[in-house]
Write a structure and sequence with these properties.
alpha/beta, inorganic pyrophosphatase (n-terminal core), 10 helices, 6-stranded mixed β-sheet, 6-stranded parallel β-sheet, Diaminopimelate Epimerase, Chain A, domain 1
Length: 325
């Protein structure tokens, strides 16, 4: 896929290219509870590095969702929970805005470890020795496309599919506001390179078991409206998540209610410890709401963590959300 000039201006790209070219052994990782963009970006970058004769392993903080197991290289993903911390020459952290979000992978960082961060979050902290960070990109997977192009990588159908899946995940099928004209151009290039857009979309959006779908119905029964029907909240208990409900981004369903501006999912990871997902339609920057509780993310999609009684957690969230309506 020849390209006369880059599709996007990335001032940090030369330093990232130098980091990749000068290293021999790499460990690639992402944030805890790694999502589709993080998994796809790791696998695509692994293939790009290996094409240049380099050693590259994908080691995630915890096991990723098996929903992505159709991607080439999936079976080679390792998890830090099952491996002793190893001496790491070069660590590349993808789709992760802060060092505190890589969990057990922090043990891989020693005095001699060089770190490259590749990320697109608005609240990303440049914690690497080299940081390829921009909010101009829809996803970290899209950034890997630009990095691969700059390295002269000849995109195979498998790598094109990995990147396409990551972009599709973070843009909600090219529907979210972070989708740019460049994102659409990259998507077209990936399809030309062999990405099967119908298969990727089917595996990403239509790939649940019957018990999980029935569980979704029960989860949606918990949906309640607040603040004059402008806020929707769904509560998922620990029992729900054990049943597989964590594999569906149920928070998006709240935005299907036409009056709702902010949708919230309260997910009980362990008893009295909650992972909060926040989504907004147009007016509200949910990143500011998440930040009030030590979290972050994007303007329209963010998250945080809270502890305590679920009713108290709900009240805390509503009090903060009301400030932004």
């Amino acid at each position: 896929m020849p390209r006369k000039k880059p599709l996007i201006d990335l001032p940090e790209l030369p330093a990232a290219l130098a980091f990749v070219r000068s290293g021999k052994h790499f460990v690639l990782t992402s944030h805890v509870n790694c999502d589709g963009d993080g998994v796809a970006a790791c696998l695509a970058l692994q293939a790009i590095l290996r094409s240049r004769g380099k050693s590259a392993s994908v080691v995630l903080p915890d096991p990723p969702n098996s929903q992505y197991n159709f991607l080439e290289g999936w079976e080679g993903i390792e998890t830090a929970s099952s491996l002793p911390a190893a001496k790491t020459e070069r660590l590349i952290v993808l789709d992760c805005p802060a060092l505190t979000r890589i969990g057990k992978i922090e043990e891989y960082i020693t005095e001699g470890t060089q770190v490259l961060v590749i990320d697109h979050h608005q609240d990303s902290l440049p914690f690497g020795h080299v940081n390829l960070i921009t909010t101009k990109s829809s996803s970290t997977s899209e950034l890997i496309y630009h990095l691969g192009m700059a390295l002269g990588f000849q995109f195979t159908p498998a790598v094109a599919e990995q990147i396409y899946m990551g972009i599709l995940f973070d843009t909600g099928g090219f529907r979210y506001a972070l989708t740019t004209p460049t994102t659409l151009e990259v998507g077209a290039q990936l399809v030309r390179a062999g990405a099967r857009l119908d298969l990727v979309a089917d595996r990403l959006f239509n790939n649940q078991s019957l018990p999980v779908l029935k569980l979704l119905g029960r989860a949606l029964e918990s949906l309640q409206l607040y603040c004059e029907d402008q806020v929707a909240i769904v509560h998922l208990s620990h029992a729900n998540l054990d049943g597989g409900m964590d594999h569906i981004d149920v928070v998006n369903y709240g935005l299907m209610v036409q009056s709702v501006e902010v949708s919230v999912a309260i997910k009980e990871d362990t008893p009295r410890k909650y992972r909060i997902s926040l989504r907004s339609r147009q007016r509200v920057d949910v990143r500011q709401i998440a930040a009030a509780f030590g979290g972050g993310g994007h303007t329209r999609a963010s998250g945080c963590r809270l502890e305590g009684d679920v009713n108290q957690v709900r009240s805390q969230l509503l009090a903060e959300i009301e400030k932004h309506l």
